[in-house]
Write a structure and sequence with these properties.
This protein is mostly helical. It is built from 2 helices and no strands.
Length: 74
């Protein structure tokens, strides 16, 4: 029983150490397969006619991008 608890404790310490390392380096977790770009999909929603919710989100993103470009200092 002590062997199981000791092994669990060691695994727990390793997981915590890895988590702290990611937090300190401020890296995001990413996949190793290359993501959607590896299979030829250029965006998350590859629909020809997106739904209303997606259209609203795209409109909001476009307005934000326009505002950022208009208020750019450089």
């Amino acid at each position: 029983m002590t062997t199981i608890l000791l092994a669990f404790g060691i695994f727990l310490i390793v997981v915590v150490a890895m988590s702290v390392g990611f937090i300190i380096q401020k890296k995001s977790i990413s996949g190793s397969c290359g993501g959607l770009g590896a299979i030829g999909v250029e965006k998350a929603c590859d629909c020809d006619n997106p739904c209303d919710k997606r259209k609203a989100k795209m409109e909001k993103e476009a307005q934000r991008e326009k505002m950022l470009n208009e208020n750019r200092i450089i």
